[in-house]
Amino acid sequence: MENTTYDKKSIHQLVERNKNAVYRLALVYCKNQVVYLYYYQEYSLVEVANLMGKNQNTIRTYLFRARKQLKDVLEKEEFTWNAE
To answer: Other C-beta atoms within 10 Å of 26: how many?
Structure first.
């Protein structure tokens, strides 16, 4: 598995193609509000941090962990990562 970095646009496209997996992730991930606000409501990192009363680095960490968990879920379902 290659290590690929995705920007916000490509992550958003991935989310759109895989809403069911992302929804499951949001349900099980303890910081699901961050995932929901950032990807579904399209708030910026700064806005999410302000809304949740958290440091931006904390929100960044939550998103990193959520993306890793999403990748793990999709890999288990044999999803092929293709950056567009």
So the answer is: 18
User: How does pLDDT run across 15-55, given as a tens digit for each residue?
Assistant: 777 776 666 665 555 467 888 889 888 999 999 999 988 99
Short-list 38, 40, 39, 66, CA closest to 51:
38
Cα distances from 29 to residues 52, 63, 73, in angstroms, run 16, 10, 12
Confidence of residue 76 (pLDDT cuts 50, 70, 90): confident
Instruction: Output the furthest CA–CA distance in the chain (Å, rounded).
Output: 37
Tell me the backbone φ, ψ of residue 16, rounded to 5 degrees.
-60, -40
Class of CATH domain 8-76: mainly alpha
- Please, are residues 59 and 51 in contact by the beta-carbon 8 Å criterion? no
